[in-house]
Design goal:
heterodimer; A: 172 residues; alpha/beta; TIM Barrel; 5 helices; B: Anaerobic Ribonucleotide-triphosphate Reductase Large Chain; four-stranded mixed β-sheet; binds iron/sulfur cluster
Chain lengths: 172, 657
């Protein structure tokens, strides 16, 4: 698994101040994708155990973070590895609020409860789902790029068996 | 005049200097000179006119008025005397205006007298007039320390006026006692529901209109010398009466709406005063207003946040006197304490300040030049003492000139009692001892580069060096405290907001020492004790490191966090950073984030080369890029900033990408 970007503190990929981690590799090939370079699984630097631990300790030591965001590429193409990264993170920093961005839809990801994708999904809290649709691009949207994409409250959705949209904690 | 028996050559030299000063200004030759102050359009006629005056005034002060040691220290680039052009005539720096007193008793602007206002609309209009009347009596900022408290009585007056109108309109039974007509009187609401509702709505509308006109006025009256807008600040946030809350709410709403075409107001500087139990947690009466302030700041860069709970400020806090609440002026000035007992804000201010170039001292006694392996700390502190003494001499000499000025030289300020006690002076009487309530401040710049020059690393990079930096600033503060006692004056330590200065020291030090990496290789020195803007550091860490300096700088300091990204769309992040800074005892705090505005469609947010809303390209339409510099905003940083400040903005590492 490769890392194609890391911002220790970001306000752009989810609510609050978050550490944003970009995982290389994506096969959705959306038209108008913001960074086709990240489709390549070999793009970026190897996300070695050492690098993971570095990032984990930065996250654990930063009192200002509201959580992390996983982006890509699409982290679900590396579901098993990303899942074990999260396990390690939660073990050392407690359960950190996690947003995850994907080109898959919620329905696709929950289709097979035995799949690695489902296991990864379960560990996260907010899912930003759906492929990027160039014709639905809207710059006024918070935390996503096109209007077909949804911000889904994962625990509430899994518990109720239907999609529950995420609601912000503070609105201005 | 001090020049004894001037020789022919000396006279010739003086004459050549004078002529050169004029030529530089008239032909706009020296852009950094012209743009020294981002708030002044130095290429305009009135800007040039005022530049001419001020450059000659400086020249005159240096050659004929100031102590030679001070002039020498300026020339050697160790000390900077701020607003040197005002030195010889004895003007003072800044002031907190007692708006309650002036509005409540009426006042005279010198051209006519003004009655106490009977409505919030008029009161707000008078606030602008008072600011305007005061600003030319001094050279720094004019501030309202508690505008919500000051204006609340006029909201009450408006309410009462509308309520009585309502009674007549709706023929609701009269018989109310005038003193019972209060917004917070719930009985009134029950007995006269229509009149009450009508009065409340009308008062709200009027307060909002008043706030709108106030903000517009403060952004448009170019009444200060050189076509500048008065350097105004308004502090608010703690008044919990419904009238005061209405004032705060209206100011925030107006600021968010923006000016005429929706653009971000540049003035006044707005400061929200944060206090636990008043506005910091959901159960506090003004919490909703604090959230609104955060929203406003995320959209418009203001308000900044003043921390009434920081120990430095809390010690003077008296819940029954809003004038004892820490507030700031201009970029950061703090004048709360007074050894003569006026431990409050209104009616006094800072008298003047001189800034020390810590970097040059660091270079002289550190390892940077390769002359020694280890910093010569003894030499450093010895030289520091020497220049502290000289800078203080300069303040005292200037103070003497200031004290000798007659009351009529600053008629509005003194005769109307804007400076407390001035109203008792006869026109020809010198202001004298009244000024002792003000503060004389020693400032500093470039702790980061100074540390780098001394030890090879700055205080953000190294725990031990951080300790050294803290030690240095504590030492300077102790010097100020000691001198306060010795001289029986308020001498305070200032984290200088170095706007014009940031590049000047650097340029000359680089000429002298060459380009030293991490020291003189940029166009500016790092402001006060800040961790350099170009240094990558997490926001929380920056806050923690800078927080401890705030307590030492009793003349004022500010910390910033730079955010990249659209702060407007992430309130949670904004709020958590502000509250974290407050919890770390930062005394005064703000978040910088870029605001770009597309002049084609009016979109505000972050704009790269192409406007995300209308698709215009920056080469075809003007994209106005608003940035904050040393505490206040300036129209467009590319056309109004001096080169050092432009470089600083370019170099800023956003603490969040
Ligand atoms: S899912 Fe995201 S990374 Fe993958 S192609 Fe679509 S936009 Fe690009």
């Amino acid at each position: 698994m490769n890392l194609c970007g890391y911002y220790p503190e970001s306000i752009n990929e989810g609510e609050g101040l978050r550490a944003s981690i970009f995982i290389s590799g994506c096969r959705h090939r959306c038209k108008g994708c913001f960074s086709p370079a990240t489709w390549n699984f070999n793009y970026g630097e190897p996300f070695t155990l050492q690098r993971q631990n570095e990032i984990i300790s930065e996250i654990a030591g930063n009192p200002l973070l509201s959580g992390i965001s996983l982006l890509g590429g699409d982290p679900f193409f590396s579901a098993a590895e990303v899942g074990s990264f999260l396990d390690r993170l939660y073990e050392q920093a407690g359960e950190v609020n996690t947003w995850i961005y994907t080109g898959y839809t919620y329905e696709e990801l929950t289709a097979d409860p035995l799949a690695a994708e489902y296991a990864l999904l379960r560990r996260c809290h907010v899912l930003v789902d759906g492929r990027f649709e160039e014709t639905l691009r809207d710059t006024s949207l918070r935390y996503c790029g096109s209007s077909n994409q949804r911000l889904i409250d994962i625990p509430a959705s899994l518990a109720s068996g239907q999609v529950v949209l995420w609601q912000p904690a503070i609105t201005f | 005049m001090a020049l004894l028996q001037p020789t022919y050559e000396a006279n010739e030299h003086l004459l050549r200097e004078m002529i050169a000063v004029g030529e530089d200004i008239i032909d706009s030759k020296d852009l950094d000179l012209i743009r020294e102050n981002a708030n002044l359009n130095g290429e305009s006629f009135s800007g040039k006119m005022s530049k001419l005056g001020s450059e000659y005034a400086k020249w005159y002060a240096k050659h004929f008025i100031m102590p030679k040691s001070v002039v020498r220290a300026i020339e050697d680039n160790y000390v900077y005397v701020h607003d040197l052009d005002q030195y010889a005539i004895g003007t003072t720096n800044c002031i907190f205006i007692p708006f309650d007193k002036l509005l409540g008793g009426g006042f005279n602007t010198g051209n006519g007298s003004v009655r106490p206002p009977n409505s919030i609309m008029t009161a707000m209009a008078l606030v602008a007039i008072i600011f305007q009347s005061q600003q030319n009596a001094q050279y720094g900022g004019v501030s309202a320390s508690k505008i919500d408290h000051d204006l609340a009585p006029y909201v009450a007056k408006s309410f009462s006026k509308y309520f009585r109108k309502g009674l007549a309109y709706f023929e609701e039974e009269d018989g109310v006692q005038p003193e019972d007509i209060r917004m917070s009187n719930f009985e009134l609401q029950l007995r006269y529901p229509k009149s009450y509702r009508y009065a409340l709505k009308e008062t709200e509308i009027e307060t909002l209109q008043g706030a709108e006109s106030l903000i517009h006025n403060l952004n448009t009256m170019s009444s200060r010398a050189g076509g500048q807008i008065p350097f105004t600040s308004i502090n608010y946030g703690t008044c919990t009466s419904p009238e005061g809350q209405m004032v705060i709410d209206a100011l925030l709403t107006t600021t968010m709406q923006g000016l005429g075409s929706g653009e971000t107001p540049i003035f006044p500087i707005q400061i929200f005063k944060c206090k636990q139990g008043v506005n910091q947690s959901p159960k506090d009466p003004n919490y909703a207003l604090f959230l609104k302030a955060a929203e406003c700041s995320a959209k418009r860069l203001y308000p900044n946040f003043a921390n009434l709970d920081a120990p430095l400020n809390l010690q003077y806090y008296n819940p029954s006197d809003p004038d004892s609440e820490f507030a700031t002026m201009g970029c950061r000035t703090r004048v709360l304490s007074d050894r003569f007992g006026r431990n409050k804000l209104s009616g006094k201010g800072n008298l003047s300040f001189n800034t020390l170039n810590l970097v040059k001292l660091g270079i002289e006694y550190g390892t940077a030049l390769g002359k020694r392996k280890k910093a010569d700390e003894q030499g450093f502190y010895h030289a520091l003492d020497h220049y502290l003494d000289i800078a203080l001499d300069g303040l005292l000499h200037r103070f003497d000139i200031q004290r000798r000025q007659k009351a009529k030289a600053s008629d509005f300020m003194m005769r109307e009692g804007v400076w407390e006690g001035g109203e008792q002076l006869a026109p020809d009487e010198p202001v004298g001892d009244l000024l002792k309530h003000g503060s004389l401040s020693l400032g500093f710049i470039g702790v980061a580069e100074c540390m780098k020059a001394l030890y090879g690393r700055h205080h953000g990079e190294d725990e031990q060096v951080y300790g050294k930096a803290l030690q240095l600033i504590s030492y300077m503060r102790a010097y100020c405290d000691r001198k306060s006692d010795e001289l029986d004056l308020n001498i305070t330590l200032f984290a200088t907001p170095a706007e014009g200065l940031s590049g000047k020291f650097t340029k000359r030090d680089r000429q002298y020492y060459g380009s030293l990496p991490g020291i003189t290789d940029r166009e500016y020195y790092t402001n006060s004790f800040h961790i350099p803007v170009y240094y990558e550091i997490q926001a929380a860490r920056k806050i923690e490191l800078e927080a401890r300096f705030h307590d030492l700088c009793n003349a004022g300091a500010i910390s910033y966090i730079e955010l990249n990204g659209n702060a407007r769309s992430n309130p949670a992040a904004f709020l958590s950073i502000v509250q974290y800074a407050l919890s770390q005892q930062v005394s005064y705090f703000s978040i910088n984030h870029p605001i770009d505005r597309c002049s084609a469609c009016g979109y505000e947010g972050i704009i790269g080369s192409i406007c995300p809303s209308c698709g215009s390209h920056e080469e075809d339409v003007h994209i106005r890029r608003l940035r904050r510099v040393t505490g206040y905003l300036t129209g467009d940083f590319q056309t109004r900033f001096n080169s050092a400040k432009q470089a600083e903005v370019r170099d800023r590492v956003k603490h969040t990408p």
